[in-house]
Specification:
InterPro entries: CUB-like_dom (IPR003366), DUF7591 (IPR056013), DUF7592 (IPR056014), Sperma_CUB_dom_sf (IPR035914)
Radius of gyration: 30 Å
Helix content: under 10%
CATH class of the largest domain: Mainly Beta
CATH architecture of the largest domain: Sandwich
Number of helices: 4
Shape: elongated
CATH superfamily of the largest domain: Spermadhesin, CUB domain
Strand content: over 45%
Keywords: Signal
Pfam families: CUB_2 (PF02408), DUF7591 (PF24511), DUF7592 (PF24512)
Number of strands: 36
């Protein structure tokens, strides 16, 4: 009886491990009129393969078509099983685990080298072919004088054609939903005004993994988007190469309050390192900056004339200048030397910024330095809450056009009484630039409203100091005490 059970158990394992043969170590897939798979009738996670199994799969793709491979690979923890995917440029990517992960091949195709290290590996894939989408977006243009990049957001697969004053630079932003990163394989860059008869530069995932930029040899670049999951999102950043040619490495993130930016380490020991941040919340909150070097903060691109530069941090000497709100949908943090880690705290987006004596900082409009519609609304409050401090502020730059205005107001303390401090400015009554105003109080509010007129925004600096009122109140108390007991 025991022998019968063992025999049945062995037979079931044998049935489970049956896999298609791999004659000559290679199987070729040509374009059929329907989906096909390996093994036949495959469904994830797939059958169990024996140890030391090896096979190469050649996926052929004709011109004007692409192949989508949805691959699954599950193996024991101690297994060396893997799938090495080679694209049309013969660039390889090794995968040790995958659950219906997407890979894309364009003409003339690619290949998959699968091998198992031990028993228990499950593997398989589905491959389908389709033609490129006929949709072509023209009109993307970047210039050396730009202060904002071109970030296309559209709702269809197809191709995007970008032209430049000199050359086109392309970088990518990591998606807020990290599971979408694998779909960057479906973003393919070409050096020229179309994807026909032009050099293939690589995929979005290869660009991301390389922390680099793709640069056209001429003044145009084409991006082919094959994956529907990455449409309607801001992932690809285009600039004129004149703005990026001195930058040695790039990181980028598309983040928001639900998918925080977190921390990033920039290494500029071999040249400037850039961090590009896109956020639909319009503001990021820097909570910590450690390491060494100089960090320039731009609202937009790292422009040539630096008109959109809001501050430069001397890393390691920032205790008085953090935390800091940085407004704007797109920012560039450029470390020009050293090695630094920047940390964002996305639990704080809007609302009151609490500051203590000794703090310095700035406010800017969300498109500062760029001729555009832009606004700003921010609030400072003393810490500890309602403690009395001296608030000093000055306007470094402001572009008051037509009916636009700036209002600065807050809770002011005069003779121990709380009154409203308020200053109003407009085109006929502008503030004196770089001239500090000050008041003793507990809070300050800043509102810049352009009334819908395009302008270059505003930039304000502030300093929080200990209040002399405290000393005056203490001396007054001592004087009264002495008189009372005299």
């Amino acid at each position: 009886m025991v022998a019968t059970i063992l025999l049945l158990f062995s037979f079931l394992n044998f049935i489970n491990a049956i896999v298609p043969d791999c004659k000559d170590g290679k199987i070729i897939f040509d374009q059929p009129s329907h989906k096909t798979s390996y093994p036949a009738n495959f469904s994830s996670p797939g059958p169990v393969f024996p140890a030391n199994f090896k096979c190469e799969f050649q996926i052929n793709v004709p011109e004007g078509w692409y192949a989508l491979v949805e691959l699954s690979l599950i193996s024991p923890n101690d297994s060396q099983s893997s799938a090495v995917i080679f694209d049309q440029l013969n660039r390889s990517e090794t995968v040790f685990v995958a659950e219906s992960e997407s890979f894309y091949f364009i003409a003339s195709g690619g290949r998959i080298q699968f091998s198992t290290g031990s028993d228990g590996t499950k593997f398989g894939f589905i491959v389908s072919w389709d033609t490129y989408s006929p949709f072509i977006f023209h009109g993307g243009r970047v210039n050396a004088s730009d202060t904002v990049p071109f970030i296309p957001i559209h709702y269809s697969t197809g191709s995007i054609v970008i032209s430049a004053e000199t050359k086109v630079s392309a970088t990518v932003l990591r998606p807020s939903n990290g599971t979408l990163l694998s779909h960057f394989r479906g973003i393919i860059f070409f050096d020229g005004p179309s994807y026909n008869n032009t050099k293939n530069l690589g995929t979005g995932l290869q660009l991301w993994n390389g922390n680099t930029q793709y640069v056209s040899t001429g003044n145009s670049m084409t991006v082919l988007i094959l994956d529907f999951y990455i449409t309607a999102n801001a992932f690809v950043v285009f600039q004129d190469y004149e703005l990026t040619k001195g930058i040695k490495s790039f990181q980028g993130e598309n983040c928001d309050i639900y998918n925080p930016c977190g921390s990033f380490t920039l290494d500029a020991t071999n040249g400037p390192a850039a961090l590009q941040i896109y956020t639909r919340d319009d503001v990021n909150f820097i909570s910590d900056l450690s390491g060494s070097g100089h960090l320039d903060v731009y609202i937009g691109t790292a422009s040539q004339n630096k008109t959109n530069l809001v501050t430069t941090y001397h890393v390691g000497e920032t205790s008085s200048s953090l935390p800091q709100q940085v407004f704007g949908y797109f920012k560039t943090f450029l470390l020009t030397d050293g090695n630094a880690t920047i940390t964002f705290n996305n639990t704080f987006i809007y609302g009151t910024l609490y500051v203590s004596a000794g703090t310095t900082g700035f406010f800017s409009s969300d498109r500062y330095g760029t001729y555009a519609v832009q606004n700003c609304q921010a609030t400072l409050s003393s810490s500890p809450y309602k403690s009395t401090v001296k608030i000093r502020w000055s306007v470094s730059y402001i572009d008051l056009v037509e009916d636009s205005w700036l209002e600065v107001y807050g809770d002011q303390i005069i003779n121990n009484e709380r009154v409203t401090y308020i200053k109003n400015y407009n085109a006929s009554n502008p503030p004196h630039l770089n001239s500090y105003e000050e008041f003793i109080g507990t809070s300050m509010n800043v509102i810049f409203n352009d009334r819908g007129y395009r302008n270059k925004g505003f930039l304000m600096r502030y300093e929080i100091e200990k209040s002399s009122n405290r000393i005056f109140m203490l001396l007054n108390f001592v004087l009264v005490f002495i008189v009372y007991f005299d």
